[in-house]
Amino acid sequence: MGRTFTVTVDSPSHMLAALPMAAAGNDAEHRWLADALAWLKSANPDERTERLRQFTAAVEHHPLAPEYKACLRRLWTHHSYTRIFTEAGLPNETAFFDELGTRLGNALLPRLLPPDGDLYAVLDNLSLSLEDAGWVASLPPDLSKFWGNLLTPTSESIYTAMRLLAIRASSVGLSSVIMQLNNYERPQDSPFYRLIAAVDNLTANPADPQARAGWMETFAACRAAISARRHALETSGVTTNLMFRLDLLSALLHRIDTLFLLASDAGRGRGFAVEIVGGFAEHRGLLTLFRSGGTHLARKVVEHTGRTGGHYIAGSSVEWRVMGYGAIGAGCLTAFTALLKFAIGHAPLAPAIAGIAFSINYTFFFVMMQFLHFPLASKMPAMTAAALADALAKHDGAEEEINLITAMTRTQFAVTIGNLVGTIPLSLAIDAFWRWQFQYPYLPIDYAAKTVHAIHPLLSWSILFAAITGASLWLSSLAAGWTTNWMAFRSLPAAIANSRRIREAIGDNMAHRLSTFVKTHLSGIAGYTVLGFLLGFIPVFGKFLGIAYEVRHVTLAAASVAYGWSSLFWNHRLEALDVLWSVLGIGIVGFFNFATAFFLGLWLAMRSRSINYRSRVQLLRGLWQELTHHPARFFFPKRNESTAHQAKAAAHGN
Asked: CA 39, 125, 148 angle in degrees (round to 5)?
């Protein structure tokens, strides 16, 4: 639905004739301005330029040209002009989620123009875009000069805006969450404490060399403090709000400096106008906010995930065998997980209770694997993908990266085979014990047939379900990485070990043990808890919505199919073709579990590091050459090969 104009817009002369010549602050003036700008914006860029040219000519050649120019300048240089300098393109809030809520409200709800006129509100209601900023940048020199001279802001409005921005930057820079990142003994030692005075001195004496030198020194010190705080976060965790505040500080300082340059050089007006229009466009964007607020957090989460992933990489033959034996233990635990899954599924439970029971079942056995250091194959790809991306970002050559990839693939192979070797025989043994004890198999014959056929790669939705399960595995790895980042940011293990309250409650020795436990296991517990919830509750929730989603986790699927095989075998219903199809189905489920989790993990890791893809052609060539000449290296370690140190060094960036 098009805009309803309150004035006639058949021609620029009619638009000019409708301009109210009342005093500043008249509501009619700002309604006219809103209509005029909307009229310009409603045309394509070329037609828009022509409309502006015609309107400019109508102003210049009108008998009352001086009066009209004065009215236009008075209208444009309304007191709210300062608000444009201090808010356009800058967040309104100092916390990420507060800013998100504000932008959501502005995007969804209409806003009424203030009755006394507000230039900022007029421009904000236009829904300006980056295309509009490009149009301003492309204006012909004659139009740019005319309107630049007419609408140039006063020095008073610029200096007022600089003072307001300095007050806001000083408030954010001296907040406790920012101050604790530096080792200032007193708040007075922070350059943000001196920022207001430096800006006040500059705006009061803009031509004084000492005032300018003082501003430049303070400006450089504030920028250095922000850089130091960012560097300090490289060795610890981050939060979205913290990175949001550091970005806000950088933006506020940049705007103060831009305004000072604008006041010093009138020729910078066009560039500043483009920045302001672009700021209005970005200020409305939710994606821009997520992109700026989430990139740093995503990078730190990926880094911590990559460090965890380094523990899932076995380079030497000894570590390879240890990982394989541990994987057998994880497979054995999965056999009991599937056993209880069937029991819960047959119990007369309400859907919500069943979902909670499934989640607890999965989480309990997954956490047991964490405590016993048993690797689960499907958990590895997302973790090792982050380690690979970390290596890609930190190494120029491909040799170490090839060593890392071969170590990853053969570790994945060993753990996958170990999981299957552990879960399938034990599932068959459990069912045989059940049949010996109770004279019938654990699964009813019809349910067993359904379980075996459900894994068929062509006659079921197993491929799609396996991919969705892979996404769940990736999300659980993010949860583990986020928890590690949060622990690092809070210095949680050290805080527990040094907490007077905890030491008085459980003693010094137990406090240190608790600290070690949290450091070693908390992130793994968090990741497995999220995985247990996703695998246990989401299918039940899907049924509530009428979506027949089922978990397709390779190790769980293998255990479930083994119970089905046993039941069908003892009832003389097991056919060789069903076994072959289900074996193929297990393999395909495993592939899509691994591929989806690895792809998502690598995608996020590469996005968070801005890796140049073209520079990795050498790596692909090296991998292909290695695969054609030494294919066994991707599955089995050589006896004299020990790349564990190289792999883990790459994963940790050492």
From this structure: 60
Nearest of 496, 494, 490, 495 to residue 510 by alpha carbon: 496
Beta carbons of 642 and 405 less than 8 angstroms apart: no
Three-state SS sequence of 516-557: HHHHHHHHHHHHHHHHHHHHHHHHHHHHHCCCCCCCCCHHHH
Instruction: Tell me the residue type at 629.
Output: H
Contact 320, 314 (CB under 8 A): yes
Q: Which helix (H) or strand (E) holds 475?
A: helix 462-490
CA quadruple 518, 521, 526, 527: dihedral sign:
positive
CA nearest neighbour of 379 among 424, 326, 425, 421: 326
Q: Which helix (H) or strand (E) holds 27?
A: helix 27-41
Give the C-alpha separation, 299 to 315, whole Å.
26
Map out the domains of the chain with their CATH numbers.
77-284 (no CATH), 298-493+525-652 (1.20.1080.10)
Residue 426 has which token pair? 């034990």
The pLDDT tens digits of the residues spanning 577-621 come to 999 999 999 999 989 988 888 778 777 766 666 555 555 566 666
Name residue 277's amino acid: V
CB atoms within 10 A of CB 618: 13
The total of other beta-carbon atoms located within 10 Å of residue 45's CB is 13
Distance CA 225, CA 95 (A): 20
pLDDT (tens digit per residue) in 533-559 = 999 988 888 888 888 888 899 999 999
Is residue 67 within 8 Å of residue 21, measured between CB atoms? Answer: yes
Closest CA to 200 of 243, 236, 164: 164
How far is it, in rounded angstroms, from Cα 528 to Cα 341? 17
**Residue 544 is which amino acid?**
F
